[in-house]
Predict the 3D structure of the following.
Amino acid sequence: MALESLFKTGAFATLSVIGGTLFAIAPAIAGPSCTTGTGLEICVTYDSSITALANASTVESSFNTVAQQFANALTNQTSIDIYVSSGTIAPSGSAVGARPLASGAVAGSYNVTDAMGASAAASFTNTTAALAAAGVKNLPVTDPTGGKTFYMAQAEVKALGLASTYSTSSPYDGYIGFSSTAPFYFGTTPVSGTYSFQAAAQHEIDEVLGRTSTLNDSAAAALYLNQANPLDLFRYSAPGTPASFTENASAYLSTDGGTTALGTVDSTTTGGDRSDWSVQAGPTTTDAQNTILSPGTNQGLSVSDGMVLKGLGYGIAPGNGTGLFLAANNPAGAASSLTSVSAPEPASLSILAAGAAFAGLMRRRRPTSGD
């Protein structure tokens, strides 16, 4: 998988692709469609590759439905900006056109990120302090990544109220692309042989919000060997024991020091994201964050996914959180006690002064059956 980096250059952004060629972000043809809820606002800009589709209104309506779900469920007072395209993920290094994202791809996303400090040590301190100030407890005292530099998604930077400290100058917090050839179903329950467009949208919006790990089984993963994301603070092999910070290490996610398993993360899929739930025994669960997206299946987000977002500093509206994050969708390895997203706990640390910030970009791709 080719990984790219986005550099903020004032009024516009350019994409530096492996090989050294620079490309400008293709302009969209219409203004954003914004949805508001309990606090979070999500504004979606549709590329011309979407608006020119014969079923553009159906595609946009289906995506807007998912955006509204997140706006209803998350209470952070901020606006998140997402750019959506078909055929490729913009910015992609090539024009957004009618071709698959990649061989076997269904959907994928980039999320713009900010370095959390001028040094690795500072970035760990600043990241944990920012999460603690947002109400996250049981954070590790020592860096479980072995000294990587932490990067936070620009959307999460906004959600945690850190925009005055870190750069949020990129016009979009994330870029989502859908395959132009995969058979999508745009309603609630996909028919046989089709993929749930809404489940794919849930997966990718979740990643734009910060649900990503720098661990990724990819030939280009060396670009990120010295980086970590806030989600990487929650990888465990046993209660109180952080998992090895390596591509293929077995791990589960937990936001209470490893005591309660939220689910087992993928550690074997070639090209898979290590932030996705494992389906090593087959896609037996219906979590939209599974590393495999199953055709003909009504997948959605789980209580575990809500707990992950809570660990990343997002506030969950009790009623609306129940509507989006369902225990019936819990992934493999999730504790049986996970029946609802609990209320945020009080902060245990005060936020610390942050070092200089700069931005990067991470690409996340979903293979035919998932990501």
Observations:
- Helices lie at 48-51, 56-73, 120-133, 154-159, 197-208, 303-311, 318-324.
- The mean pLDDT is 82.
